[in-house]
Design brief:
This protein has four helices and eleven strands; from the N terminus they run αααβββαββββββββ. It is α+β, with helices and mostly antiparallel strands. The protein has two domains: about 70 residues; about 100 residues, Mannose-Binding Protein A, Chain A, CATH 3.10.100. Keywords: Disulfide bond, Membrane, Signal, Transmembrane, Transmembrane helix.
């Protein structure tokens, strides 16, 4: 089944291969962008009767459209209330819970506790402690099964100010979930 991205890509490639001038490709790109914005606007008008819920959805779609138009790497979609960062979506809890319940909540949302692999993935370097997907079971293990060489004494992983640390799993903290973003 064809989607609009495939049609646009094939049309652009065929124009490039046919030796069409650059302005043809620019005009085509501008036309597709206009169609995308028109479609978003029509969707927003359709949602206006939903009231507050419609406003949230409309705001989300507008954000998606603007993100898609402003990024050269393509569009990524995340669920409402999740933040897009690179190829992943992140959700930060507002509640406090122990590690096992936090992990279960992330799984119920289709994700897992965050597994920061480098400084870029530490987002905004929170000043509070947040549960992440690291626990001790015969060695430090990420929730995806990979291992980490760490010599800390706690049982579960936390992140604070960009640093990974550990504490007892029964402490109640906020947590951060992650899942793959949908690539358009």
């Amino acid at each position: 089944m064809w989607d609009w991205g495939s049609v646009f890509l094939l049309t652009t490639l065929s124009l490039a291969a046919s030796g069409c001038p650059q302005w043809h490709r620019t005009a085509l790109w501008a036309g597709w962008t206009g169609n995308l914005l028109l479609g978003v606007q029509m969707g927003l008008n359709h949602l206006s009767f939903l009231g507050c819920a419609g406003d949230k959805v409309a705001s989300w779609w507008l954000n998606v459209a603007l993100t898609c138009l402003s990024e050269d790497k393509g569009c990524t979609l995340c669920p409402i209330n999740w933040m897009s960062h690179g190829t992943k979506c992140y959700w930060v809890s507002h509640e406090l819970s122990h590690w096992n319940s936090s992990r279960e909540d992330c799984v119920n949302q289709g994700g897992q506790l965050m597994m920061p692999r480098d400084q870029k993935e530490n987002l905004q370097k929170p000043t509070r402690y947040f549960w992440i997907g690291l626990f001790f079971e015969k060695g430090w293990t990420w929730v995806n099964g990979s291992h980490l060489d760490l010599t800390e004494g706690g049982s579960c992983g936390v992140i604070r100010e960009g640093r990974i640390s550990t504490i007892g799993c029964s402490v109640t903290l906020q947590w951060i979930c992650q899942k793959e973003a949908i690539q358009l």
